[in-house]
Amino acid sequence: MEELRAAPSLISGDWDQDFLKTEQGIRRHVIGALRSRQNGLKTALKPLVDELARMLVSEFGLAAEAVDKILQSQTTLLSVLSDRYDALDEAAHHSDIPFVELAGDGRIVYANAAFDKLVPDGRNAPFPRLFGSRAADVGAALKANHNTSLRVDIRTNKLIRQVRVEIGPLRDEDGQQGNYALLLDQSAERSRLDALQDGVLRTDRAGKIRFANERAVQILGFAEAALKEMSLSDVFAPDDEGTTSRFDEWIGTQTGFTDFVRLRPMDGRSVLARVSAAPYMEEQNSSTGLLLLFAPLNEDLARQQLKTVLAEHADPQEIIEAMLRVVEKVIPFEMSAFGVYNDLSDHWRALTVFPKPRWEWSTRWFKVTADVIQWLEQGKTWNNDLSKFVEQLNPEEKDNPVSKAILSDDFKSMVVLPIRKAGGRFGSSLALMSRNHKYTAADLRTLQNLGVEEILQAADAAIEHAQARALRELKDNLNKAPSARTIATLLATGTTQCFGWEYVGVFRVDRARGKFVLVAEHVKNDRNLLVKSAAQKSEYTQDLSSGMLGSCLVQRSILVVPDISDSKRNYGFIQTAPDQRSAMTVPLFVNGKIEMILDMESSESNAFLGPDREAARGLAADCEQIFAARWHEAIELALMNRIEQAAVIVDAIGKICHMNGAAESIFGQARDRELVSFGARDEDIEELSQSGIQHRLHIHLTIGDAPRTEVTTLANREPLNDDYGHHLWLFTSLADQSRESDWGYLEETVTAVARETRAPLLMADGLLRGAQSLLSKPELMRNCANMLEQAANHLLKADLTFERLSERLTVQQTPQEAPTSFNVLEAIYHEIEGLPVDDRDAIDIEDEITDESHLIVSGWLERLSFAFRSALSSLLSLRVTPTDRLTVTIAERPPHRLFVSMRIPAVTAQPLDPSAADLIERSQSRARQMASVAVEAIQKAVEQHDGSLTELDGMGFEFDLPLCAQEASA
Which neighbouring-strand residues pair with 902? Predict the structure, then answer.
């Protein structure tokens, strides 16, 4: 290096031409210029290029232009190489990876900025001396003339850091063998070792500690820098007193092994520990020391026991308590509490307190301040002055009875293991408290290394899973409950199981009496919280306007009372049991009205803060949906049962999901069966499998077990349009319909005959009695004969009325026989010809039919003939004078329809003056009215033939009937 500094500088110009004529001079010039980093590669090589040009001109006699052309490509190549070299040199110099160049004697002749920062004043120093006990190994690597990788410890600023040094050959400025070296950071490997649950030490072959992970520092209590100045025998002693160190035996082994030792931590204790070790190999068959993993034996045993806790216990509380019994063997504590945070992490609730204190844990939810959350976030979650901790970080809980009891019980120290949920928020935590033990970071790290967090997460998840399962079961049971009282009982018992509340009472709002009525109540422990004692027989009631229940009814919202003794904020709470300390009321709505109120009470104060209010709101919403569904189901069931037909609802795949009572009488208990399974024939099965709207289907069903009964039905099918593909089927048993029709016909016939024939019969009876009274008076014999004749006429009219009523009632019944085809024109003429001569002569027929052969109608001849006959008789009875004519027009209209018009001229009938008419005339007028047939019966007969009837203001009728389509003649 001194020779290099004494050499002439080509850059500054203090050189002679003879200096660049030797290989050594050129090497010294170029390397020196590049190490100085004052110029780039192109500038450093320019004197060589200029000297070459000078020689070509002066010594070889070439023209300057020729020399420029000769050196043009060389100059271009030099520019390309210079750009790439300068960029790489800049990157290497400013890289975060320390880099050095070494002379042949191992001195540092160049170092980049990263190395200067790592080892200040390291230039010109012997490189191997930086690595302490590994100096000889590094020196051997420098002379090996090949690439070598070593893991070594380098002393930097009085600190020792573990690095990996990569060494490779690089000739120096004298052309002798030199080297380059890269120092690679081992922080990633260190992080992996720090994450281990066991302590890790690495020694050299002399037994000196070269590396210690965080766990080793925690267990032994020494700082890492102090450990690296110590030997293994300073911290490890044989497990048997008086036995010499076995390090010499360990360092000589070529395989891994396990042994037991006694640790010598800084506090002077002697701790039995398990140690596992293996030779630390730098290269194949080249051990540079030992790599040891160790852990205190009690922690090791505890870790093994904790692995079986989840397998041995299913109940979450048992899991937590079993885990704490194991932890107690490793970390001393006199009381512990495991609890959960709400979603906002501003409240914490203890789920398990172990062991139970002598005093009562009387608070359910504790307020958590932002200062406490920040304390948890910092990670140093231990404190050995609880009174000051509460006063500084959570002064709101200073007067809490539980906080007071903890401090009064002389608890002074605490360590907290916070457990995060997905998203990073705190989900739960475990607190260990002690009266005498001072907690440190070592205790927190031990909790973490034992795997306590995983067990508590599993227990917390099991609690949430059990709550969700209990809530699902409660909803299912509420849906299936047969009565309101059963619902109340399920709510009282189910909510205590789902949410852990001590007491739940269910009150019904009885508006008729103006009272709240206690329907059901349940307490889950031996607390005195019941409103009614076991011996009390009478019901418990409370006025609708009084107490916390009355406030809930008025405000229509959830109310929470953290402390019932606070009269200003307890909503008028009425204490009914000695252990009541906090309460919550939840209104339950049915169709927008409060019908029930849940009354939750607890023997703990602050029992319903945190997420309990939201849990209650969710429960109320679920109940409201269930009650609404039950309400609609009850309405639907009532409406379904009001349907006289057999109503069946099937789902999208044809399974029966609901039936009314009429359907059950036909199908039996057929819920969840496929409707097509009841089809008697293939065509019935095909129809039952279809969807969409279809009316008046004739379906044959087979019911019951073999031999199955066949039932003929008339069915209608319609979709419910409920987005789920359900369909409604309505079945009518034709046999039942026929029996009902017969009974209805009989009842209607008897009623109508009795009503319509009563007047002419009474008239005949009066005439006959009058004639009887005249028999003893010969001079009035002619009058007697007239009266007898009139009586006979009235009896004839009564008989005619009965006959017409029978025909009308028959027509109104649904046809039971199959339809036939007949000539409708012949039917019309037949009824006209059957009239009396006087009536027949009063009819004018306008027949516009040219071909009567195709006037065929499908239906029932007797019924349509009745319609024609009734219309003719009805219109003929309206004639006032013998000159009044009835016009019957018959025509065919497209497409294939028959038009029949029956009309009489408009007449004005003179009403009878009751005082001027005798009884006989009045009787004849009444008989004529009774003989006329109701228009409804005529219209019914026409509609049964798919036709229509138009009434012309009482003066006529128009028939419009469809004709059967005729096949074209061959």
Answer: 888, 957
Tokens (6 digits) for 536: 């009390």
User: Among residues of the chain, what percentage have pLDDT more than 70?
Assistant: 83
CA atoms within 13 A on the CB side of 166: 8
Unique residue bearing structure tokens 């290394």:
449
Structure tokens at 72: 């043009």
> What is the residue-wise DSSP string for 4-27?
HHHS--TTTT---GGGGGSHHHHH
Secondary structure of 364-409 as H, E, C letters = CEEECCHHHHHHHHHCCCEECCHHHHHHHHCHHHCCCHHHHHHHHC
Stated as kind and residue range, the H or E segment containing 830 is helix 824-833
Instruction: Determine the Cα–Cα distance for residues 953 and 940; give it in Å rounded to an integer.
Output: 19
Beta-carbon neighbour count of residue 343 at 10 Å? 12
* Angle (CA) 167 172 176, round 5°: 95
- 831 residue type, one letter: E
- Name every residue whose Cβ is closer than 8 Å to that of residue 477 and which is 6 or more positions away in sequence: 490, 494
Q: 843-847 and 886-893 as β-strands: parallel, antiparallel, unpaired?
A: parallel
pLDDT interval class at 590 (50, 70, 90): confident
User: What is the reported pLDDT for 909?
Assistant: 45
Q: Which of 603, 688, 590 lies closest to 648 in space, CA to CA?
A: 688
Q: Is 914 exposed, middle or buried (0-12, 13-18, 19+ CB in 10 A)?
A: exposed
Average pLDDT over residues 702-713: 79
SS3 310: helix
Q: 3-class DSSP state for residue 34?
A: helix
Nearest-5° Cα angle at 400, 399 to 404: 75
536 neighbors 556 (Cβ within 8 angstroms): no
Question: Measured on CA atoms in the order 35, 41, 47, 52, is the torsion positive or negative?
Answer: positive
pTM given for the model: 0.49
Confirm if 289 and 278 have CB atoms less than 8 A apart.
Answer: no
pLDDT (0 to 100) of residue 431:
93
Count other C-beta atoms under 10 Å from residue 207's C-beta: 19
Nearest to 540 by CA among 501, 568, 574, 567: 574
Q: Which amino acid is at 658?
A: H
Extended strands (E) in 116-270? 148-156, 159-169, 179-185, 199-204, 209-212, 236-238, 257-263
Whole-number Å distance between alpha carbons of 531 and 898 = 84
Q: Are 733 and 711 in contact (CB under 8 A)?
A: yes
What would the mean pLDDT of 33-40 be, rounded to a whole number?
65
Count of beta carbons in the 10 Å neighbourhood of residue 131: 20
Q: Which two tokens stand for residue 698?
A: 């004739």
Amino acid (1-letter code) at residue 32: G
Instruction: Give yes or no for a contact between 678 and 701, defined as CB atoms under 8 angstroms apart.
Output: yes
DSSP run (H or E) holding 796:
helix 781-811
The Cα–Cα gap between 601 and 529 comes to 7
Tell me, what's the pLDDT at 23? 62
Q: What span, in angstroms and rounded, lies between the C-alpha atoms of 880 and 379?
A: 116
Check residue 672 and give left, alpha or beta (phi > 0: left; psi -120 to 50: alpha). left
Helices (H) and strands (E) in the chain, counts: 31, 35
Radius of gyration of the CA atoms of the chain, in A = 56
Distances (CA, A) of 533 to 243, 521, 577: 74, 11, 10
Q: Which residue has the higher pLDDT, 880 or 420?
A: 420
Q: What is the mean pLDDT of residues 312-328?
A: 89
490's CB contacts (< 8 A; 6+ apart) are: 474, 477, 478, 481
How many other CB atoms are found less than 10 A from the CB of residue 526?
Answer: 7
> Does the N-terminal peptide bond of residue 355 adopt cis geometry, omega within 30 degrees of 0?
yes
Residue with tokens 């497990």: 239
Calpha distance 489→534 (Å, rounded): 16
Residue whose entry in the numeric block shows the structure tokens 């033990």: 437
Q: CA 889, CA 901: separation in Å to the nearest integer?
A: 5
Amino acid at position 895, single letter:
P
